[in-house]
Design goal:
InterPro entries: ALG2, Glyco_trans_4-like_N. There is one protein chain. The protein is α/β, with parallel strands linked by helices. The chain has a single domain, classed as Glycogen Phosphorylase B (Rossmann fold). Strands 3-2-1-4-5-6 form a six-stranded parallel beta sheet, sandwiched between helices. The two termini are 18 Å apart.
Length: 202
């Protein structure tokens, strides 16, 4: 991807499943806003059903590329987290090897792609955390606790590799700080996809 001028950025967004939901709405709004400012936006995902998606993702405002749709979303209705990780890793690997460096990569929801994107030269990686997955997953049985242990570890370690971490409110920021203690970060939040203050400079 070539820059139009020095003030415009090449931005990649990696999202696990570009369907219809609150997380998807935020990502699409961010992509639309950034694109309207002249930045080059490219969304990468493992799932994009053109019959069940937001209109902006098929209008041609920005490209949406799908990799790994053939990979399972679950195994016998289990191992959803592992499958999500594998699908996102596949997407990240395709971006890593098939595309030139982006100025910014925005990783949404799944942090395991961050170390792969950090391998791109001169690329800054931003992670958007809706809420720590470690607090959402159930651990009602011994087997589930064993299953979640490496996933929770990977989430914390890879999240800390991001150059910038965004959350959507102060409560999430506080919860994030209490549960992810392996690294230090400066607190901040965004109440919308792109804030009014950011719009003048991004």
């Amino acid at each position: 991807m070539e820059r139009k001028d020095s003030s415009k950025l090449n931005i990649a967004i990696i999202h696990p499943d570009l369907g219809i939901g609150g997380a998807e709405r935020l990502i699409v709004d961010a992509a639309v806003e950034l694109s309207s400012k002249g930045h080059n936006i490219h969304i990468f995902t493992s799932q994009h059903d053109k019959t069940r998606c937001f209109e902006e993702t098929v209008s041609g405002t920005f490209p949406v590329t799908v990799y790994g749709s053939f990979l399972p979303r679950h195994i016998f209705y289990r191992l959803h987290a592992v499958c999500a990780y594998l699908r996102c890793i596949f997407v990240a690997l395709r971006v890593l090897f098939l595309y030139r460096s982006f100025d910014i990569v925005i990783a949404d929801q799944v942090s395991v792609v961050i170390p792969l994107m950090k391998m791109k030269k001169l690329t800054k990686v931003m992670f958007y955390c809706h809420f720590p997955d470690v607090l959402l997953a159930q651990r009602t049985t011994f087997l589930r606790r064993i299953y979640r242990t490496p996933i929770d570890f990977l989430e914390e370690i890879t999240t800390g590799m991001a150059d910038l971490i965004l959350v959507n409110n102060k409560f999430t920021a506080s919860t994030f700080a209490k549960n992810f203690t392996a690294f230090k970060f400066t607190r901040g939040s965004t109440s919308r996809a792109v804030s009014k203050d950011q719009r003048g400079s991004v």
